[in-house]
């Protein structure tokens, strides 16, 4: 488990994700999106 400011912890994640759901403080949605998009697997998030 990671606890802390997501803008500091998300860049440290060394993983690829098939699906990303952002449910956080709305003002930072664009920041979280930009930090997580490179961690999305190729074809991830597609139906």
UniProtKB/TrEMBL annotation:
Pfam families: Methyltransf_3 (PF01596). GO terms for biological process: methylation. This is Uncharacterized protein. SUPFAM superfamilies: S-adenosyl-L-methionine-dependent methyltransferases (SSF53335). GO terms for molecular function: O-methyltransferase activity. The keyword S-adenosyl-L-methionine applies. Keywords: Methyltransferase, S-adenosyl-L-methionine, Transferase.
């Amino acid at each position: 488990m990671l606890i802390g400011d997501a803008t500091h912890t998300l860049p440290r994640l060394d993983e690829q994700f098939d699906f990303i759901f952002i449910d956080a403080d709305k003002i930072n949605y664009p920041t979280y999106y930009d930090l997580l998009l490179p961690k999305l697997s190729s074809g991830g998030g597609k139906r």
